[in-house]
Amino acid sequence: MQEHEKMKEKVKQQFAKNAQKYVASESHSQGNDLSLLIDWLRPTSDSVVLDIATGGGHVAKTLASHVSHVFATDLTEQMLENTARHLKQHGKNIWYVIADAESLPFLPNTFDIVTCRIAPHHFPNPDRFIEEVQRVLQPHGKFLLIDNVVPDDKRFADFMNTFEKLRDKSHVRCLSMREWQGLFAAKGLVEIRSLKRKKTYDYPTWVERTTANQEQIQRVSQYILSAGEDLRRYYSVIAENNQIQSLEVDEWMVLCEKR
């Protein structure tokens, strides 16, 4: 099995095991970005939407009452089944499709809107993901990406990707804004609006969500606490009595149009 396929299997295992946690997660279900979706996307009653790697279905739920149809896709069948049960009362126009973000089972020029939120750091081939987004979008269709991003500085980027990987085996890599912009430009997706903000994690809840045991939690915590002061300051690591209480990461929300 190729390395990328192995990584996708890890993603399936991780999200199947923690499906309900992602439905309930405050950082996923109550993020400030959700309240901006309608204003940014300006959907109409006949819009057809694709939500890639829907996870707990929070974007699909937010958009469903404003559009004609939402196709909520995910690589993990158990995650999708759990989300479908959760959203049963929230939208009769949400359709659930098992799909790989890097190989979407849809025809070209199908969707008015494509969204993907807090998921691309799990994708082994972000270039293929963007290629697929561009392919399935209608001309002048809108693409909204929301994900954690790293600074351009390699040391700071490596630090974040390392503690994320220690915490979650299915984590591949958070990209920088500049890297994403390069991928957009290569595929004719024009950036029209963006917002970068700090996102605070309640550390005990965040680290427990994807770790298997106390030993793994300890490895994550020790790695963060042993980092240089500049790294801990950038990620706003708050600790009391050697116990991490919270930290912050950068999250980027960007809207593009297919030209």
Per DSSP, the total helix count is 12
Distance between the termini: 37 Å
CATH fold description: Rossmann fold
Low-pLDDT ranges: 21-29
Overall mean pLDDT stands at 91
Write down the domain tally.
1
**Secondary-structure class:** alpha/beta
What is the count of β-strands?
A: 8
Characterize the largest beta sheet: strand count, sense, and whether it forms a barrel.
8 strands, mixed
Kindly state the percentage of residues in helix.
Answer: 40-55%
Query: What is the ordering of alpha helices and beta strands?
Result: HHHHEHEHEEHEHHEHHHEE
The CATH architecture: 3-Layer(aba) Sandwich
Q: DSSP strand (E) fraction?
A: 25-35%
As a whole number of angstroms, the C-alpha radius of gyration is 18 Å
Family: Belongs to the methyltransferase superfamily.
InterPro entries: Diverse_substrate_MTase (IPR051052), Methyltransf_11 (IPR013216), SAM-dependent_MTases_sf (IPR029063)
GO molecular function, one term: methyltransferase activity
Domain Methyltransferase type: 50-144
Quick summary:
With 259 residues, the chain is α/β, with parallel strands linked by helices. The protein is built from twelve helices and eight strands.
